[in-house]
Amino acid sequence: MMDSYLIDPRSGFCKSNSTFYSKRKQLPLPANSSLDVTTFISSQPHRGTTAFIDAATGQRISFSDLWKAVDRVADCLYNEIGLRRGDVVLILSPNSISVPIVCLAVMSLGAVVTTANTLNTAGEISKQIGDSNPKLAFTTVQLANKLPESISVVFTDERVETTRGVRVVGILSEMMKKEPSRERVRDRVDQDDTAMLLYSSGTTGASKGVITSHGNLTAHVAKFVSDDSIRGEIFLCTVPMFHSYGLLSFAMTTVACGSKVVILQRFGLNDMMEAIEKYRATILALAPPVVVAMINGADEIKAKYDLSSLRTVRCGGAPLSKEVTEGFLEKYPTVDILQGYALTESNGAGAATESVEESRRYGAVGLLTSGLKARIVDPDTGRVMGVNQMGELWLRGPTIAKGYFRNEEATNETINLEGWLKTGDLCYIDDDGFLFVVDRLKELIKYKGYQVPPAELEALLITHPDILDAAVIPFPDKEAGQCPMAYVARKPESKLSENQVIDFISKQVAPYKKIRKVAFINSIPKTASGKTLRKDLIKLATSKL
After folding, report:
1. Which InterPro entries does UniProt cross-reference here (predicted)?
2. Which of 163, 189, 215 represents a domain boundary (last residue)?
3. Which of 143, 372, 389, 470 has its CA 20 to 30 A from that of 4?
4. pLDDT value at position 159?
């Protein structure tokens, strides 16, 4: 344990080991090593009454009914379907009250939750299923056709009129009505056991399953349990629950704190505004493009909707500029705008601003999360840097994932033997301990908060008979942040057009991965070892802006 007097109280930096320590209040973690995260969440005392409301239908569930449902679903999964510790369960569903019920029930048994993006194609989902090998899938009738017929399915729809060829083993609403059996011996669940397997896109093109333990999730929830400021708040969940942010924040943390969550099935600006007004929402979680849309449409929005209940907007996905932050505060003077930084691999931990004063440190994503340590490492020399020095951000703490599922090579590249997570982000930490994200060392393209791996698109492009070589880069976009742009080297005499390239890819990938812009080039610039020089192409593409 590091002596506190060696740590600079202003920056959190310790010169003796070149490590930054969080300035936030330290949180006690449960000592019981055989505590599953569902039990930890259910044991937290609070005075909340309504847990979730579906914004579209008005359906609501109380905390007492939520825990009854979790218990009954877990009982059915154990006794009727034979789900056991370590088995994987896939959730392929839009945002709904079903997601937290299924998630908490599955994890209570020591089984593992994996989620898939509802926009993904059947081919993309099939790859994930092939990797994670789920025993069971929870989905809707509408999405069932994206699943292979070999997988057992529980439908989350209230009424099921068609089965679309899949093997149906249950209906969630019926499971929730069954009285649990008196005899049930659950497997012992340890903090080190895997609770979630959420897939994070990588620059290699292959999506990787991030192994998240019960201990990781318990540490994440514990961070918020002691925060009295969010108790009694009404959250509006606008982010997808298949993503770590949506799942950890709105299917788990709010339940532990007794907060009410209004769920938007899918995002729409007007739907969001209507829900704020109707349900008197106080806190929103948004990606930067939505914040920009709220600024641009402020006059019309405020004339049409009563947003007087809204007090806080929490923003993640990309750093907010001074212009955006000030523009939002000018248009919505009674609403605080706070931001955060985290990765799927860090399970909600990273940095965040937690007050208006902190949010005025423009360009910063905030102070390090409680319990987290950071290092800034020169990516070329491996030297550990100090205050106000730039390098790759490394993180270590109780929420950092164990590694990647069945991918030892990727695990060793990303998490070292001491447990430091190499984020791939170029950062620095200033004199007051604020983290600034300067650039991405990783090559992922951020489109409206979604991660798009360029190598995946490149692999598809070179299968086209008229394409010799291709490279995909991020192109700046005011609305989306970045969009995928392809540089294509055509075969001689080919008359392949931009629209043909765009159409070729759009038929094979989810909408957010579509290529939006194409330029033709004689050859793709590469290093001597054959790596694509994306930086050169980015310079070429942006030189004409």
Report:
1. AMP-bd_C (IPR025110), AMP-bd_C_sf (IPR045851), AMP-binding_CS (IPR020845), AMP-dep_synth/lig_dom (IPR000873), ANL_N_sf (IPR042099)
2. 189
3. 389
4. 67
Tell me, rounded to whole angstroms, the distance of Cα 155 from its chain centroid: 24
Residue for token pair 């999506």: 207
- How far CA 207 is from CA of 300, 407, 410, in Å, comes to 41, 11, 11
pLDDT in tens, 509-534: 999 999 999 999 999 987 654 668 88
Q: Is residue 25 part of a domain?
A: no
Environment class of 154 (CB within 10 Å of its CB; exposed 0-12, middle 13-18, buried 19+): buried
| Residue of 164, 215, 188, 160 lying closest to 86 (CA atoms) | 188
Host domain of residue 103: 63-189
Do β-strands 88-92 and 445-447 pair in parallel, antiparallel, or remain unpaired?
A: unpaired
**Structure token pair of residue 171:** 């209906």
The last residue of one of the domains, among 147, 164, 189, is 189
Beta-ladder partners of 416: none
- What is the C-alpha to C-alpha distance for residues 534 and 61, in angstroms, rounded to an integer? 49
DSSP secondary structure of 484-518: EEEEEEEPTT----HHHHHHHHHTTS-GGG---EE
pLDDT of residue 461: 92
CATH of the domain at 536: 3.30.300.30
446: number of Cβ within 10 Å: 19
**Cα distances (angstroms) measured from residue 435 to each of 315, 350, 439, 525:** 15, 9, 12, 34
Q: How far apart are CA 119 and CA 137, in angstroms?
A: 16
Cα angle value 109/63/262 (rounded, 5°): 105
Q: For residue 159, is it within any domain?
A: yes
Q: What is the mean pLDDT of residues 202-229?
A: 82
Edge to edge, the sheet with strand 403-404 lists 167-171, 152-155, 136-139, 88-92, 112-115, 194-200, 208-213, 403-404
If one counts every other C-beta atom within 10 angstroms of the C-beta of residue 163, the result is 12
Torsion of Cα atoms, 172 then 176 then 179 then 185, to 10°: 70
Measured from the Cβ of residue 106, the count of other Cβ atoms closer than 10 Å reads 27
Cα–Cα dist 502/515, whole Å: 6
Nearest Cα to 440, choosing from 511, 349, 341, 306? 341
Record the pTM.
Answer: 0.84
Among 12-26, 43-57, 58-72, 312-326, name the one with the lowest average pLDDT: 312-326
Encoded tokens for 360:
């005025």
Asked whether the predicted pLDDT for residue 227 surpasses 80, the reply is no
CA 66/CA 69 separation, integer angstroms: 5
Which residue, 338, 334, 332, 360, is CA-closest to 351?
338
Rounded to 5 degrees, what angle do the CA atoms 157, 160, 166 make? 95
- Asked if 467 and 489 count as a contact pair (C-beta separation under 8 A), the reply is yes
The domain that holds 107 is classified in CATH as 3.40.50.980
Q: What is the pLDDT of residue 4?
A: 61
Cα separation values, 301 from 145, 234, 293, 326, Å = 38, 20, 10, 18
